[in-house]
Amino acid sequence: MRQPTCVIYDRLSRLFAEEAPDHRIAACKAYAEQRGWKVVHVATDTNVSGASKLEDRPGMREVLSWLPRVDFVVAAKLDRYARSVLEFQRLLDAAKSTNSTIITADGVVSPENASIIINVLAAFAEYERDMITARITDSKKHFRSRGNHLGGLAPYGYAVTGPINDKRWVIDETAAAIIRDCADKLINHGATLTGLTRELNERKVLPPADHARQRDGRKLSYEREGRDGQKKSPQRWHMTTLRDVLYTPAVRGWLVQSVPGKKRAAIHNQPVLDTEGHPVSAGPGILDGETWAAVRAIIDGKSKGRGAERTGKALLLHVALCSECDGPMYRQRREVKGKDYSTYVCRAGVGKRGTHRPNVITAHYLDELVTVDYLKRFGKAELKRWAEPDGSAVLQLSEVTTQIERLAGNLAQLEPNGTAARVVITQLTALEKRQAELRTEADHAEGRWVTTGGTVADEWQRRTDEGRRALLTDLGARVLVRPATPGAPKRFDPSRVNAEFDGPAWFRDDPAAGELKAIARVEEEIRQERLAGATY
What we know:
Elements: E1 5-12, H1 22-35, E2 38-46, H2 58-66, E3 72-75, H3 85-97, E4 101-104, H4 114-145, E5 158-161, E6 168-171, H5 173-188, H6 193-202, H7 208-215, H8 239-247, E7 256-257, E8 270-271, H9 289-302, E9 320-322, E10 329-332, E11 335-336, E12 339-340, E13 343-346, E14 360-362, H10 363-378, E15 382-387, H11 392-411, H12 419-444, E16 448-455, H13 456-462, H14 465-474, E17 477-481, E18 497-501, H15 505-508, H16 511-532
Parallel strand pairs: 1-2, 1-3, 3-4, 9-17
Antiparallel strand pairs: 5-6, 7-8, 10-13, 11-12, 13-14, 15-16, 17-18
Helix pairs in contact: 5-9, 6-8, 11-12
């Protein structure tokens, strides 16, 4: 007579991660031995929820592959199989189709009563899971409304402090200084996310995850060995990492949550709002509202889609244009024996497929010519920057409107004079009041030009080529370069260059004032040229 065979299955939930599965597997083996069954395989799942799909569990996939070849599947208890009636029913259907039987080693489900009791017990297992989920959800909702940290790493710039049930954020001054410095360079010194990312890596500033590890006294990522025994490479800042750090509402000290329906990312975070529509504070702010709004405006304005041209280090990239096709001149870097022979080249005039005659000019001479002309025109002008209104009002307005729509939908399903309906009406009244306040704040918020406390020339000296290029762009610079005349000497010819400047945006926005300042500037240039005895 053939000896019955069985496969043993055990699942370890995250909720009981400290529990070892050994004793349950031993109980299953003892049960099989008592019944005279041969154990042909033991499958386990660790840190796997009982609500997850069967095919998403590695151990359960092994069980499913053995079903056609065994008579029984044994687990210590019913809840080891699943905590979902739907998933458990799928397992039963799979076992039935292969003429195998699902059994528990505690004797509750045996070969004799399996067909009757198994569905009833599975329903109770799902009910227990739902109760656990509800308790956890209610607990998180309560702590979120109080502004408590809900677990995991705090946002970059913060550390977590306080007892288990009252954790809050405190400013991590080392990381907060990085955030403030990057924000200042973006707003006041024409920096770019790409350039700031490169600078942070050159300074060997630890990225968020490794910074938290170092602060908490844990090993850095590259100090830990991988599965192959080799140490990992040091983590680096990436442009998207820095963008998320500066963009998230968490830098205001607000508790944040992801936007439903969008990819989970810091750039999509919104502040958690209380019942009256105010952001829930989890700690002090790192950036004030005006600074944060300015940073977000810069990031939004300079964001590019995948495949778009990326700015490099060239001073006149997207400022120097070819007179033949009005296309950008790109800098080709070339250095020989320590000397710079780089050029600006129009790609449309290169090679056999060029659409017009070649247009190439020596880079450092062109940079110098434009720099001198630019500073001569605008160097003494007071530098200003555009201060955006605090965009948090718009964010809060969107979230409050969503809450109102959700509560209004719930109200329609409640007893009109019931207690729950009265509570919802009270919340709706408070939210509608807050909605009106936010709409007024958003409608009347206006940007303005503010002085930076220095001249254009002062700021030019402080900036890198990336920042200087931003200054040129802000002041409406457009440099047209004509191709060289055939047969002309191969030296730099300033007559090939026509530099045009629309002037600072802060008086371009006021045509009357701009015209007066432009006339005054031209008159001053003529006076200076006459004094110097030179013709411009």
